[in-house]
Request: fold
Amino acid sequence: NELIGGYAGKWMPDTPGNRERAMKIFDIWAGASDSNPVDGIERALRTYGKAGRSMSIYVFGDDYTGKTYDDVIDNVTKLNTVGGKHLAKIHGVGFRSLRTTDHFAILMRELSKRNGGTFLALKDQ
Reply:
């Protein structure tokens, strides 16, 4: 599901008003997920990934509940590669706290590495 309605399958125009609206949504957002970013990454690649287009995917998260790493990493990397080039750079930002595991960091560190991106881990104080 899209965080901001009305832009399904379209790029959101980059304007100061849209940026402010997006930040306000995060202030009130109480979303829940299954802690598995793989479906979203694959959907973004299928929906927006086009050869010759410059694109980055940023994945923010704190945990990964999937049961495998290697199959997921191989499948996403294959989906993201056309003619030997990446459709998108895949970046990850991990939030660590006492309630999370290393699973998200393990997944996103390797996905980022194999797909031209960067992984950043932030630790809760």
